[in-house]
Amino acid sequence: MKSSNHIRPYYKEIDQILPQRSADSYTKVYLVWHDQLQVEYFPEWVREERPLLLFIESAHKAKSRPYHKQKLMFVLSAMRHFALECHQNGYPVWYESTSQSFEQGLIRLLKKYEHWQLHHMELNEWDSIQALKQVQKQTNRVTTYRNTFFLADIEEFEDRIKKGWRMEFFYREMRRKTGYLMEGEHPVGGEWNYDKENRKKLPKNLNVPEIFRVEPDAITLEVKHMIEDWFPHHFGETSSFAYAVTSDEAQRALEHFLQTRLHSFGPYEDAMATGHSVLFHSQLSPYLNAGLLSASMVCEAALSYSVQHEIPIASIEGFIRQIIGWREYIRIYYHAMMPEIRTANYFGFTENLPQLFWDADTRLNCLRQCIKPVIEDAYTHHIPRLMVMSNFSNLTQTNPRQLNEWFWFSFIDAYEWVVLPNVLGMSTFADGGVLASKPYIAGGNYINKMSDYCSNCTYSVKQKTGDSACPFNYLYWNFIDDQRETFQQNGRANFMVNTFDKKNVEEKKAIKDSAHKFLSQLARKWNN
Ligand SMILES: Cc1cc2nc3c(=O)[nH]c(=O)nc-3n(C[C@H](O)[C@H](O)[C@H](O)COP(=O)(O)OP(=O)(O)OC[C@H]3O[C@@H](n4cnc5c(N)ncnc54)[C@H](O)[C@@H]3O)c2cc1C
Ligand code: SF4
């Protein structure tokens, strides 16, 4: 292991990696990005020729935003494990640790080793793509390969997606392309989408399976101490870290999901329950996004399991849709919409993020229950992210870019390419409707229907206005009234304005008074 003089991390095992020959003797260098951690997906020649594998660990990147400590533990530990694994499998490995950015570190090395020809796989993050283009411009020594961790080609779909082509149609095309859940030209079971069957509330006595956990090993513990030392003020806690950090462990997480949760994935996909941040979801996003698993690997394992174990079509179809539909679509949307999308703010909201996003200290039980696991484990499933957190952010007129930053630094699976479309496109309508057909907002009734939160809340979900009423109730109508033009222009949503307008004068005044009082007293904080 080669490290720069700028910083001295606590290497033990990883310190023992050194290229067998000196760096001068290599011409072909393959750069391994932190989210491409599987040799099988590298270009074939890399496996045959075994060039020098270059890893860059950047402290600059780690401190660029207050990333959740577990996120940093996960990314760094997975990268170090993978570097060691490559070394053990006979690859020459150069592990560069730098206080600079990835790109600065890279340029410094390319200047030092003028004969290096750099090869790497297409990236997702916009800033790194631009930086690599610059490096290529300056040196003419960079070769880029197609990213094989994903299934869809960006160029094929980006123009349509930019024009508002919806996920559902993209998904059908991906089904045809992959042949997943197809019988010839037709979808298995006769329908493309079984979402309407996937909205059940969790029955009281249903047994929720244990989540998959891995005991942190010496490398992860070393990284943990380093993170605690270097970034004590970053978001979140470290004590409960139990994520997989190698592709073998991630594979076990996948098998665990298939055996314990895939069967019920569909029906309870939208459900939320106290003490269960995963429920019947897979919690595979950290591994997919770090490249410890790939899209095809996960889909093929799930499809083969579903055939052998009679998994209901609504569950297997719902799961496959998340990966070949949503995940692939989101990635292309990001590439199609960057960089302008970064500043999108359709409603022009400027309020700071509510304080409760930082500490979960609130009387709104749904938000307390949904944010607590984010602080503890950097994860909660899709519906708390959308229906509770983003919904509250919208209803409280919060700057969507701050919400995007918060999701980005506080979730284990967040990388700009995936968090930004989900926040600025799907959940806040900041893009003005390119990704979603209408703004995502809901009142307390919907949260009550899909969870057990309201029965333990100091607010009453039945009450519509006043100090003890559920804030989601009056904030919802207040939002519709304030943003009436947007809803009136939307065929699917203009009935909401009509419903508000039909309320009597006293009711409307009570809604507006309650909303103004709540919003004026809401504590907010933004110090990123
Ligand atoms: C506001 C908001 C922010 C989000 N931020 C992220 C993020 O930073 N990183 C991230 O990976 N996902 C993000 N998502 C999407 C989704 O919530 C997570 O992918 C999912 O909750 C991960 O948990 P899981 O692995 O248990 O998913 P499952 O429900 O088991 O789904 C299986 C897989 O499908 C993929 N998937 C499902 N929905 C989406 C989606 N909308 N976008 C991309 N992939 C999807 C994921 O890879 C996931 O692992 C966000 C959603 C919202 C509403
Ligand atoms: S009553 Fe309202 S604030 Fe309380 S948990 Fe239910 S939806 Fe959330």
Describe the structure.
This protein is 48% helix and 6% strand. The protein is built from 23 helices and seven strands. The strands form two sheets. It has a five-stranded parallel sheet, sandwiched between helices. Helix 6 packs across helix 13 (313-337) and helix 17 runs antiparallel to helix 18. It starts with 27 loop residues before the first strand and ends in a 7-residue tail after the last helix. Residues 1-10 have low confidence and may be disordered. Bound molecules: flavin-adenine dinucleotide (FAD) and iron/sulfur cluster. Flavin-adenine dinucleotide binds next to helix 11, helix 13, helix 16 and helix 18.
Largest sheet composition: 5 strands, parallel
Shape: globular
Which molecules other than protein and nucleic acid are bound? flavin-adenine dinucleotide, iron/sulfur cluster
- CATH homologous superfamily of the largest domain - what is it? DNA Cyclobutane Dipyrimidine Photolyase, subunit A, domain 3
How much strand? 5-15%
CATH class annotation of the largest domain: Mainly Alpha
Strand order of the largest sheet: 3-2-1-4-5
DSSP summary, beta strand count: 7
Q: Name the helix and strand elements from N-terminus to C-terminus, one letter apiece.
A: EHEHHEHEHEHHEEHHHHHHHHHHHHHHHH
> Which ranges are low-confidence, i.e. pLDDT below 50, for 5 or more consecutive residues?
1-10
